[in-house]
User: Which sequence fits this backbone?
């Protein structure tokens, strides 16, 4: 798979400098959700987390998902990330109906099509930064020489080249999140999902991470961002709002 040109670090210096461009060049659908529902059962009691979710995301879009706590944002993102299965409905990515796939095929699709950034970073503590970033490439069967080259590229992009051999515990929160971004984009996935990626960061580091996501979107990556922060939500070219597991607003800027 050919790699897109990476945005330079100068593109992510300040949140005020970011000009989202996803809507202007949105392309045919990358993601399609139809009638998605999710229920969690505890004994005889079933809790509805999502209901009747219809959502299509075009290639190149920058979408923010907002809503109050408990509205289903993280559940929706987990389904988009193929980390959870819906109770009903269909989910297609790149035209592939994920509900028909075997577990191994789902894992392969997730590894090649989807990058995920978590609020809690989820770095492996006993691996260096460069090894954390290299993991998805190892799982994808990328040859060693190409892995090393790609790891160097993405660490330079997130300005962590000088910390490549540090352990996660030796990094600040902002540095850990940038390492998590590097890992998520190492295999150049067309879809990047971010679940409250600034939730554990101060405003300066949070702005830098959001700026980086916007720059990646400008370079062609489809980005879906879950956030409680209204300022970050407004950076998106489209805002989807959930309440009680249902979409109540889908607005384009």
Assistant:
């Amino acid at each position: 798979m050919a790699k897109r040109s990476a945005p330079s670090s100068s593109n992510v210096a300040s949140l005020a400098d970011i000009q989202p461009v996803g809507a202007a060049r949105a392309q045919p659908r990358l993601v399609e959700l139809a009638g998605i529902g999710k229920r969690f059962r505890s004994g005889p009691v079933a809790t509805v987390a999502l209901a009747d979710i219809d959502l299509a995301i075009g290639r190149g879009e920058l979408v923010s998902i907002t809503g109050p706590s408990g509205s289903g944002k993280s559940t929706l993102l987990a389904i988009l990330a193929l980390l959870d299965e819906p109770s009903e409905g269909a989910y297609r990515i790149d035209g592939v109906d994920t509900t028909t796939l075997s577990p191994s095929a789902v894992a392969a699709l997730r590894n090649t099509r989807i990058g995920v950034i978590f609020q809690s970073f989820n770095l492996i503590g006993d691996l260096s930064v460069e090894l954390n970033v290299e993991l998805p490439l190892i799982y994808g069967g990328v040859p060693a020489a190409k892995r090393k080259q790609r790891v160097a590229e993405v660490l330079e992009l997130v300005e962590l080249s000088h910390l490549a051999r540090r352990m996660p515990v030796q990094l600040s929160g902002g540095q850990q999140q940038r390492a998590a971004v590097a890992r998520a984009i190492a295999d150049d996935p067309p879809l990047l999902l971010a679940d409250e990626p600034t939730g554990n960061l101060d405003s300066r580091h949070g702005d830098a991470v959001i700026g980086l996501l916007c720059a990646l979107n400008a370079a062609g990556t489809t980005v879906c961002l879950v956030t409680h922060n209204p300022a970050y939500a407004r950076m998106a070219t489209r805002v989807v709002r959930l309440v009680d597991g249902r979409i109540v607003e889908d607005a384009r800027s």
